[in-house]
Q: What sequence folds into this?
C-alpha cells in the first residue's frame, strides 16, 4: 500500500507536473474555458479533479462516472462549472465556467488519474472587468472608468481606447492605479465632458500579446443631435430646412439659445439672437429638450455657421452646425443655342460627386427621370423641346446623397427669349439696341420724307416737259401738213 503511494508520488514528479501555466483572460460575464487535455486520450474511466488555489474542489469525476461539485459552484442544483461529458472520450477535461465573476479569478489545477498515471495541469484564470461610475455620468461631474484584472498579471500593460482611437491621459482624464493593497487595475478619472462619450476599450497586453479587449459604452448627457460640432446641413435656396439641436432627454436646461456666428472678421453676434427667419421647429413644441429651429424658405444669406447652446447643471453645452446653401446658376449662350447650368454650394468641402438628372412629369402625375451626366456643370441645347422641364443637380458625399437643387427650363426657351435669370445681365444691351433702332428708324423716316419732297418738286416740271413735247409735236405736224 505505502509502496504504491510512493511509486505514485514518483511518477507524479516524473511525468505529471508541467511547468507551464496556461493563462486564460476572460471578460466578466462571459464563458471561461480552462483547458485540460490528457495524452494519450484515456478511456472515460479516468478520475478527474478540478481544484482552485490548491484548495476547494470545483468539480470532480470518479472512475465510475459519478460527478461532484463544490458547494459554491452549484446554485439551486444548476452547476456553473462543468466538463462537457461528450469530450471525455477524447481525453478533454476542460472546465467550462459560465457567467464568470471577478472572484472566480485565480489558480486552478486539473488532475487526471488514469491507471497509474497522474497528469496535472495548471491554469490561471484572470477575469477582466470594466465599469463606469456613475453608469450615466452628467456633464461636468466626476466620472471614472475602471479596468480591473483579477488576479492582476504582473507586468501587464493596459491600453485605453475611445472609439477605436488610442486614449492616453487627455481631455481632463487621467489613468491612475486602482487603490488597494496590490495593484488590481487602473482607473481613468476626470470630469465628464461630451468628448468622452463613446465606446471605451481596455486592451490588456501581457507577455507581448494582446490578451483581451473589453469594451463598455459610455454616454454623457448632453447634446444628442447633432452628435458632433460643425455638422453640415444642406438646403436649396427657397426650400425649407430644420437645424437640429436635441439635448439628452431629462436634462434640466436653462437658457437654450441659438446664434449665428458671423464668418470672418465680425465678432460672434450677441447671445439670445435667433436668426430672424428661424422659428422653433414643430417637433420642439412637444419636448422641452428639443431646441431645433426651422426656416420655411432658405435664402442665400442664411448660409453660415450657427451655434445652439444651453446650460445644464452650471455647465455650458453647445454645438455648432453649418448651413450650406445650394443654388444653380444659368448662363445662356446667344451664339450657340446652349444653356449652361452650374450647381453652386456655399461650401462644397464634403461633396464628392455631382449628378444631373432630367425629371419629367407625366400627365398621370407620375414622374420619371433620366440621368444625364456627372459633374458640376451641365451644358444642354435649350432649343430642344425634350430638354425643357425640370433639371435637378444632386450632390453626394462619402455617405450618400446630401441634397439637390432643381432648375426649370421653360418650353422652347430659345423662342420665348431669355428667362428670369438672364434678363438682369442683358437689360443694358437690350436698351442700347432699342435706342439705336429708334434712331435708325428716325433717320430712315427723315430720308424717306426728303425723297418724297424732291419727288413732288419734279412732278410739275415733268408735266411741263410732257406739255412741251406734245406742243412741239403738234407744231411739227402742222408744219409738215403746211409743206404738203
Ligand atoms: C498563482 O500561482 C502563481 C505561481 O504560478 C503565484 O505566484 C500566485 O501567487 C498564485 N495566485 C494565487 C491567487 O494563489
Ligand atoms: C459603440 O459600439 C456599438 C456596438 O458595437 C456600435 O453600435 C456603436 O456605433 C459604437 N459607437 C461608436 C461611437 O463608435
Ligand atoms: C399613364 O397611366 C397609364 C395607366 O394608368 C399607363 O398605361 C400610361 O403608360 C401612363 N402614361 C404615361 C405617359 O406614363
Ligand atoms: C430633391 O430633394 C427633395 C427633398 O429632399 C426631394 O423631395 C426631391 O424629390 C428631390 N428631387 C430630385 C429631383 O431629386
A:
Amino acid at each position: 500500500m505505502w509502496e504504491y503511494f510512493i511509486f505514485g508520488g514518483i511518477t507524479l514528479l516524473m511525468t505529471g507536473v508541467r511547468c507551464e501555466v496556461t493563462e486564460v483572460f476572460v471578460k466578466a460575464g462571459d464563458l471561461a474555458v480552462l483547458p485540460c487535455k490528457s495524452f494519450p486520450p484515456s478511456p472515460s474511466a479516468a478520475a478527474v479533479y478540478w481544484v482552485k488555489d490548491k484548495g476547494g474542489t470545483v468539480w470532480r469525476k470518479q472512475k465510475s462516472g459519478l460527478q461532484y461539485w463544490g458547494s459554491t459552484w452549484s446554485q439551486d442544483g444548476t452547476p456553473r462549472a462543468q466538463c462537457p461529458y461528450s469530450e471525455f472520450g477524447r481525453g478533454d477535461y476542460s472546465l467550462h465556467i459560465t457567467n464568470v465573476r471577478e472572484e472566480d479569478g485565480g489558480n486552478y489545477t486539473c488532475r487526471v488519474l488514469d491507471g497509474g498515471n497522474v497528469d496535472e495541469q495548471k491554469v490561471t484564470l484572470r477575469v477582466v472587468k470594466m465599469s463606469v461610475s456613475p453608469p450615466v455620468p452628467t456633464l461636468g461631474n466626476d466620472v471614472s472608468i475602471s479596468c480591473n484584472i483579477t488576479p492582476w498579471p504582473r507586468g501587464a500593460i493596459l491600453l485605453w481606447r475611445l472609439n477605436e482611437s488610442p486614449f492616453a491621459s487627455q481631455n481632463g482624464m487621467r489613468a491612475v492605479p486602482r487603490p488597494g493593497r496590490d495593484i488590481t487595475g487602473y482607473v481613468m478619472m476626470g470630469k465628464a465632458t461630451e468628448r468622452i462619450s463613446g465606446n471605451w476599450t481596455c486592451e490588456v497586453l501581457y507577455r507581448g500579446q494582446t490578451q483581451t479587449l473589453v469594451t463598455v459604452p459610455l454616454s454623457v448627457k448632453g447634446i444628442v443631435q447633432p452628435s458632433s460640432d460643425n455638422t453640415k446641413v444642406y438646403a436649396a435656396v427657397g426650400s425649407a430646412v430644420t437645424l437640429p439641436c436635441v439635448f439628452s432627454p431629462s436634462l434640466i436646461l436653462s437658457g437654450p439659445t441659438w446664434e449665428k456666428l458671423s464668418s470672418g472678421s465680425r465678432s460672434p453676434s450677441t447671445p439670445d439672437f435667433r436668426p430672424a427667419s428661424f422659428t422653433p421647429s414643430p417637433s420642439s413644441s412637444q419636448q422641452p429638450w428639443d431646441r431645433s429651429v426651422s426656416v420655411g424658405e432658405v435664402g442665400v444669406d442664411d448660409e453660415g455657421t450657427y451655434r445652439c447652446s444651453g446650460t445644464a447643471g452650471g455647465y455650458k453645452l453647445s454645438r455648432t452646425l453649418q448651413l450650406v446653401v445650394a443654388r444653380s446658376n444659368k448662363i445662356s449662350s446667344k451664339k450657340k443655342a446652349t444653356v449652361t447650368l452650374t450647381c453652386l454650394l456655399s461650401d462644397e468641402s464634403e461633396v464628392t460627386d455631382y449628378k444631373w438628372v432630367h425629371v419629367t412629369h407625366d400627365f398621370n402625375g407620375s414622374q420619371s427621370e433620366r440621368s444625364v451626366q456627372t459633374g458640376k456643370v451641365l451644358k444642354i441645347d435649350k432649343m430642344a423641346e425634350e430638354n425643357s422641364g425640370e433639371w435637378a443637380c444632386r450632390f453626394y458625399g462619402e455617405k450618400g446623397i446630401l441634397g439637390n437643387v432643381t432648375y426649370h427650363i421653360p418650353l422652347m426657351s430659345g423662342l420665348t427669349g431669355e428667362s428670369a435669370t438672364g434678363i438682369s445681365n442683358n437689360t443694358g444691351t437690350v436698351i442700347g439696341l432699342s435706342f439705336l433702332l429708334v434712331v435708325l428708324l428716325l433717320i430712315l423716316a427723315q430720308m424717306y420724307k426728303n425723297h418724297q419732297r424732291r419727288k413732288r418738286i419734279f412732278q410739275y416740271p415733268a408735266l411741263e416737259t410732257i406739255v412741251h413735247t406734245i406742243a412741239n409735236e403738234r407744231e411739227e405736224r402742222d408744219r409738215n401738213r403746211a409743206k404738203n
Q: What stands out?
A: The first strand starts at residue 17 and ends at 27.
